[in-house]
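Lecture 7 notes: from sequence to structure.

We start with a single chain of 499 residues. Read the sequence below before looking at the structure.
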Amino acid sequence: MTSAIDDSAMSAPGRVWRFLRGPRFIDLPIRLLALIMSLTIFVPGAFEIVEPRYATFLVVAYALILLAAFVPLTTVIASTGLGILFSPLYPDLENMFPEALLLATAVLISRRRWIGFAVGTAGLGGYLGLSTWVGSYDAGFEGFTDLGYGWLTYSLLGLCASFVEARINREIARRERAAVDHQRSLDAMRTRFTCDMHDTISHSLTTESAIIRTLAKETDPAHADRLLAELALVNAEATKRLRQLVRSLSTWEAETSSAGTRDARIRFRAEAEQLTSAIEDGCAAGSVPLNVQLASLPSYSSSTLARHFRAILLELATNVIRYSTPDTPASLTVEIRGESGDRAELVCRSTNDSPTELTVVPRSLSSRATAVGGTCEVGSDEAKRTIVEVALPVRFMSPTATADTADKADSADRADTSEKAETSEMIDVIDPRSDATGETRSDATNDTRPGATAETRSATTGGTDRETGRRPETTTGPTTSGTVPARTESTDDHDKVDV
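Now the structure, written as tokens:
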């Protein structure tokens, strides 16, 4: 139906040209060859005798050579019959009908019409038999050798043309499939980017709006400062996520396979410094005395480890902001400890004064640590300050040759001499379940999706913390990267305790 529409929309010269060139790629060269062979009728000496009947036979023979490229099966039948008729009439003259028969046979085999090819071969054999019987020009062994060599040559050329056509069609099909797959991948990337952008912006705006509404009704200056600090963290994390989305769109990182995601290299130390800077700025905005300390960290990490590290650090910072005693110093420490060969532990530790003693491990932090084979422990120091420590087992690897595009573009990091002095090793999680089961278990207690709204988090602000015996101080939950989730469980849930 589409072909009929195209033909109707095509002009008359276009339709003529389409008929002449043929539907296949090899049709045009074959038809040009047939045209050149038929034009040899104008070569001097083509007509051996001057006789109208002979001239008519010769003209028809050359016409059949030209038609062999268009209607090969018809040409086979006509040239066989006329060749057998010509042979006894002019036994001493060269018969041109076998030439048309050979070309038509080659066209048939190029189209893989095996029955037609067999008919043409049988017709050529019948002609040779009759010529030998009547003693014409192509009789005997010499005729068999001449026409046999021509049949073999034409057949091989036709078969090669058939293979060329098939290869061209396979390559076209492969490229079409590649183009379709590329378009699907591009559409999926655009859809993912649009959804992530919408989810990040909508969630951040919803969370910030809830904090602002609560801040407008807050009369306690200490609680207001906490809300300002949390609002700054939410805003900083939203900005960071948007930058990551734009960078992933420009570099178009292949995230369709889990292996590709795990092998992606992240500038770990630079990310950690940016994150701690955002945490300190947010705490400064809310007058929360939180000191963040970074030990010497590897320059790179896998994207899986960076994602969990960012979520854990933000959750620890948010817990300190929410539940520490007002106007008391608090600290957040990140370090590598227990190095043994290529194994070590990445430790994130928060220390703060708390009105009540924490005896139960925060559920969301424990779930995220367990997802990568780590541990989460709570305790207190000599000054009775609450300590929450998350330890993630990591392994050191040599950085791959394929550096991150942003790493190449970031000239400031290259110019930083302190960055050059750092080790260029890369760390990754050890537990392979981090991608498969970690997110599933974390999602049960901590919604870290960019598009998750704050409805379930803010709806539970009226609940009471069973461990601390007090009401939450904000109506909003975590930042977009997995800070402490609000309690959506009932008050009988003894496992859900936040610092």
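Residues 1-5, 253-262, 400-424, 432-499 have pLDDT under 50 and may be disordered. Keep this in mind for problem set 3.
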